[in-house]
Amino acid sequence: MSALRLFYAFVIRDLISSWRRTAITVTGIALGVCVFLAISLANETALGEFKETVDLVSGKANLEIRPSAGNYIDQSLLATLAPLGREGVVYTPLLQANAIAVGGDNPLVQVNGIDTLAPAEFVQTKTENSDKEESSASKDARLSTSGQPPEKTASGSQNGANADGKSNTSNSLIEFGTALIGEKLAEDLKLEKGSELALSVNDKIVKLDVIGVLKSKGLGKSFNGQVVVVDLVTAQDLFELPGKITQVELIVPEAIYADVQEHLSKNITQAVTVDTPSARARTVEKMTRSFQYNLTALAFIALIVGMFLIYNTMTISIVRRREEIGILRTLGANKWKIATLFLSEALFFGIAGSLLGVAAGVMLSDSALTAIAGTIEHFYFSHPLGSSNIDPMTLLKAFGIGVALTIIASIPPIFEATSVAPAEAARKGSYESRIVHSTRGLLVAGVIVYLLGGLATFAKPIGGFPFFGYAAAFAAIIGTAFITPFALNLAFTAVNKNRPIKSLLGVEGTISLRALGGAPGRTAVAVASLMVGISMMISLAIMISSFRSTVVAWVEQTLKADLYIQSQSRAEGNREGKIDSKTAEIIRDVPGVAAVDGFVEHRTMVNGEPVLVGAGDFDVLKKYGRLRLVNGQKGSALIAAMGADDCVISETFSVRRGISIGDIIEIPTLHGLLPLKVAGVYYDYSSDLGYIIIDRKQYLKNFSDTKLTSIAVFLAPNADAEVVRKDCLARLKGNSLVLIRNNQELRTEAMRVFDRTFSVTYALHTIAIAVALLSVMNALLALTHESRREFAILRYLGATRAQLRKVVLSQAVILGACGSIAGICVGYVLSLLLVNVINRQSFGWTIQMMIPWDFILQSSALVIVAALAAGIIPANEAGRTKAAEFIRSE
Amino acid sequence: MAGSDILISLDRVSKCYKAHNIDAVRDVSIDIRAGEFVAIMGPSGCGKSTLLNLIGAIDRPDSGTVVFDGQTVNQLDDEALTRIRGEKIGFVFQSFNLLPTFSVMENIMVPIELNKSKVQSAEKRAKELLQKVGLESRAHFFPSQLSGGEMQRVAIARALIHEPRLLVADEPTGNLDTQNGENILQLIKEFNRDFKLAIIMATHSKEASQTADRLLQMRDGTLVSSESN
Ligand SMILES: Nc1ncnc2c1ncn2[C@@H]1O[C@H](COP(=O)(O)OP(=O)(O)OP(=O)(O)O)[C@@H](O)[C@H]1O
Ligand SMILES: [Mg+2]
C-alpha cells in the first residue's frame, strides 16, 4: 500500500469516523491558540499604537530632548541649540499634552503645540482640502527661524498671550486660538472647517476655531487621529504653561551625531534627557512589561490545558488501535512508518486547530484590546486603543506555537505507538496506555518534579519576569499529573473495598468505577486535564479574591479623607488632567474644611526604570497620616519624624528594586539629582510602577509643576460632606471645573478599576476550563466507545438503556469530582505561588491570602454539572448500544 | 404436549437486516417447552445467532410472532424486553464475555444488581452456583486470571444467577478444547435436568447436539428439519 493510501485508510478515515473526537480536539486547540493570539495582538497593538504616535510626531527626528525632572522644559533651552543650526541640525519645539474633547465618544485627544515656522522636515500636517504642507514657511523663513526660539512666545506668554498672540503668528497658517484637528476627531464630533472645538483642559473648558481637518497621515494620523494641532503659543496658553515645552525634536546629520550629543550634554543646563525618540517607546515597554508578560502567561494556560487534550486524544487514538498497529507491524511497517502515521494525525489536529484558532483570535482581538485598554490607560499610558493591528508575524507565531505544542504533546503517545510489538496483533486485552501503567515510576517522577518546583520558588526573577515562579507553577501541575494515576488507583481500590460507599454508588456507579479503574491511563489523563483547568481557575480565584480583599482593606485604611477632588478632564479619562493650585486655597477656606492635602505626581526614571514621584502636604499628613507602613509603624508618626530630605517609598518600589529603609535614592530634579533617604515603606496598590513620596515643599523647590493631581479634603468633626461638597462646587464655579467624590464614591471607583483590571483574567480562565471540559468529554467518548462490548454484555444481562446512560453519566460525575478535588488542591498550591512568588516578583505587592470558599464550592458544583453535560452525548451513545452487534465474537 | 407447558413459541418469524437486505431468518416456527433442551445446527451464516437473538428477546422479528411465557414479545418496548431478559433468560456465548474489571463473584452478581433483586439470597445462590461449576476457590479472581473453560463456567453461573426459565447458549463450546467443551455440556445438561431449565443452544458440534432433547437443522435462514434424540 502506498504511503498516501495508508495515510488515508489509517488516519483520515479514523478522523472522519470518530468525528466527535476530531471536532473536540480541534476545538480545544483552536480555543487555546485563539486566546493566546487575541491577547498577543492586543498587547502588541497597545504598544504599537503608542510607538506609532511617537514615530508620527517625531517624524524624521533622530534625537529628542525631553525633561528628566517633571514634565516640562523651559523654552529658553532653544537658545542653547542655536549654534547647531549652522551645523545643519534642524529642530523644532513641541508642547504635547492630553485633553478631553467635550461631547466626544472617545473623548481623549492629544494636543500638539507646534512651531508653525518649523522646518518642513518636521511638520506633516496635510488638510483635506490642500495637498501642500501646511508648514508653508519659505526656505528663507525656515533658515532664519530654525536657530532661534520664536520670540513671540517668550514675550507673549507672560500675560496670557491673548491679545498680541495673533499678530505674532500672522505669518503662520495656524493662528492663535485656531486648530487643525484629526479626521477621526472631526468625525466623532461632527466638526468641520469653521466649527468650534471645545476641550476640557485640566480644570477648564477652552474653545478653539477649527480651521481644517487633517488627513489621516503624518501628524494627523498620530494618536489614532484623535489629535489637535495648534500653534505652540496657543498650546502654552491652553495648558497654562507659559514658556514651557515638552520636547524638542532634532534631525541631526549622521556625521555629527556624536558631536551634537556631546554639545547638548555640555551646554544644556536644564534637567533633560537627550535620546532617540524610540527610547520613549522603550520606557513605555518597560512600564507595561510585567502587566503584558503576566497576561501572556495567563493566555498560555488555555494552550497548556489544550496540550493535555492533545495528549489525551493521541493516547486514545493509539491505545485503541494497538492491535491494528501490531498488524501493520507484522505486515512489515517499521517503527518510523508508525510514528509518521500518528505524527501526521497530530499535524492534522495542530494545523486545523491552529488555523481555526488564528481566525477566531483575529476576530476576538478587538474585544481583548477593549478589555485591556482600560487597564493600560489607567495604569500605564494614555492612548486611544480602537482596534487591533493584525500583524501577520504574530498570526504566524500563534499558528506555529499551536502546531508545535500539539506535536510536543503527541510525542509520548507516538513513542508508545512505536513500541507496539508485532506480536501484539494477536494479543487481546484491555486497550491501555502502558506509560501510565507504571504508576509507581510516575509517582517518583511526580515527587521529583514537585521538589524541583519547590526549589524554583527560591530563584530570583529574570529581567523582572518571574520566570522561575511560572516554572514552579508548571512543575506543580505536571507533578500532580504524574501522581494522578497512583492517587486514582489508591482511591478506586479504597472505594471498591468499601461496602457502604459501593451501595451508595449503586450498580451503575460500581460499574462505571470499574470501567474507569480498568482504564487507569485514560482516566488519569482526563482527570489530570480537568485538574489543570480547575486548578488554574481556583488559583486565579484565590489570587483575585485575596488581592481584592487586600485592596478593599487597604482602601478602607488609607482613603480616609472625606472628599476627593480631581479635575473634570481627569475624571473623564485624561490621566494628565490637573487642578490649579489656587483651587486648593479656595477649598481651604470653605467652612467645615479642616485640612486640605494637595497631591501631585509625575513619572520619572530612577536607575533607568520608571517610577512615580508624588508629593503630599506633610503638615497635613502628620495629623491625618493615611499611609499604612509595611513595618506596622504609624504613618503619621513617621511623617512627623521625617526630615526634609527623607522620603517614603511604596512597597512595590522597595520590593522590585530591592531598596529598603535607610537606603539613599537619587531622583532627577530641575537642579540635578536629589539624594533622598528612605524613611519608610508603605503599602500601595494603586500602581505597580511604585511611588516615591516627598513633601510638597520639597517638590515645589525641585520641580516646576505647581498644579495638583488631586486634592484630599479632611472635614471638621461635625461638618456634613454633602453640604461642603456643594459649597466647594459653588465657590469653584467659573474658576475650576472639578469632580468631587466623597469617601464612599472614591472607594467604589477604586474597586471598579480593580475589577476592570481583572475582568480579562476571569475571561481567560473561563476559556481554560472550557478546554478542560472538552478533555473530559473526549475521555468519556473514548471510554464509551471502548466500553461498547461491555455495554452489550450488560444489555444481555438485563441492563436497561437508562442504566447504561447512568453508567456513563456517573463516570462523568466521578471524573468531574476527581478533577475538582485534585484541581482544588493544586489550585491552592498555585495560588500560593501566584501570590507569594509570581505576583510579588512581578509587581511587588503583599497580598493577604483569602480563600473564596463560596466560589470554590459553586464552581466545583458547576464543573461537575458541566462534566455531566459533557457526558450526555457519550451517554446517549451508550444507551444506543445494540446488544447483538458487539457481542459477536470476531 | 399441553399448551401451558410451552415456554416459548415462534410463529412464522422472519428477520431481515435491512441495511444489507439479508434475510437472516425466514418463516421460522418453533415451540420450546419448559425444561426442554433444543440444539440448532447449520452452516456458518445460516442465521442461528439471529434466531437465538429473537428467542432471547434481544431483537424483535420483522414479521411473525414470538410468545414468551404467554407474553407476545413483538409489541413490547425495549424496557419490557429488558425486563424479560433480566427475569427469565440467561445467555452464554462462544466468547465468554465476562466483564474484565469485575471479579468472578462480582460478574455473577451483576444481573441481580442490575435488576435490583434481593442481593442477600442471591449471594447465597451465587456461592452454590460457583460450587456447582467447581470454582468456589476462584470467587475473587479476575477473568484474566482464569482459563477459557473456567471463564465459560463463570459465564454459565452468571447466566443462571437470576433463576431464568430459559438459557440461550450460542456455541458455548466453540472456543474450548474437546475436554473442556464436554465438561461445559455436562454442566449445561445438569442444570437442564436439576432446575427444569429450558435450553436453546446453537452449535457446530455433532457431539454437542447429541446432548439435546431435540435437534433443529437450519439452512439459509429457515428450519429444514427437526429431530428428537
Ligand atoms: N448486524 C448485521 N447486519 C447485517 N447482516 C448481518 C448482521 N448480523 C448477521 N448478519 C447476516 O445475517 C446472516 C446470519 O447471521 P448469523 O450470525 O445469524 O449466522 P450464524 O448462523 O450464527 O453463523 P455462525 O455459525 O458463523 O455464527 C449472515 O449472512 C450475516 O452476514
Ligand atoms: Mg453465530
Q: Strands of the largest sheet of chain A, in order across it?
A: 16-17-15-18-14-13-19-12-20
Helix content of chain B: 25-40%
Which segments of chain A are poorly predicted (pLDDT under 50) over 5 or more consecutive residues?
Answer: 130-172, 426-431
Rg over CA atoms of chain A: 33 Å
Could you describe the 3D structure shown?
The complex is a heterodimer of chains A (890) and B (229). Chain A has 890 residues and is an alpha+beta fold. In chain A, 59% of the residues lie in helices and 14% in strands. Chain A is built from 30 helices and 20 strands. In chain A, strands 16-17-15-18-14-13-19-12-20 form a nine-stranded mixed β-sheet, sandwiched between helices. A six-stranded mixed barrel of chain A has the order 3-4-8-5-7-6. In chain A, a hairpin with a 2-residue loop joins strand 16 (664-669) and strand 17 (672-682). In chain A, helix 2 (19-58) crosses helix 12 (335-379), helix 2 (19-58) packs antiparallel against helix 13 (392-418) and helix 2 runs antiparallel to helix 25. The two termini of chain A are 25 Å apart. Residues 130-172 and 426-431 of chain A have low confidence and may be disordered. In chain B, the strands form two sheets. In chain B, strands 6-7-8-3-9-10 form a six-stranded mixed β-sheet, sandwiched between helices. Chain B has helices at residues 48-55, 78-88, 104-114, 119-132, 148-160, 178-194, 206-210; strands spanning 6-17, 22-33, 37-41, 63-68, 71-72, 89-92, 166-170, 198-202, 214-219, 222-228. In chain B, 51% of the residues are buried. The model of chain B has no long low-confidence stretch (mean pLDDT 87). Chain B has a single domain (6-228), classed as Rossmann fold. Chain B contains seven helices and ten strands. At the A-B interface, helix 16, helix 26 and helix 30 of A face helix 2 and helix 3 of B. The complex binds adenosine-5'-triphosphate and magnesium ion. Residues 48-49, 170 of chain B line the site of magnesium ion (MG).
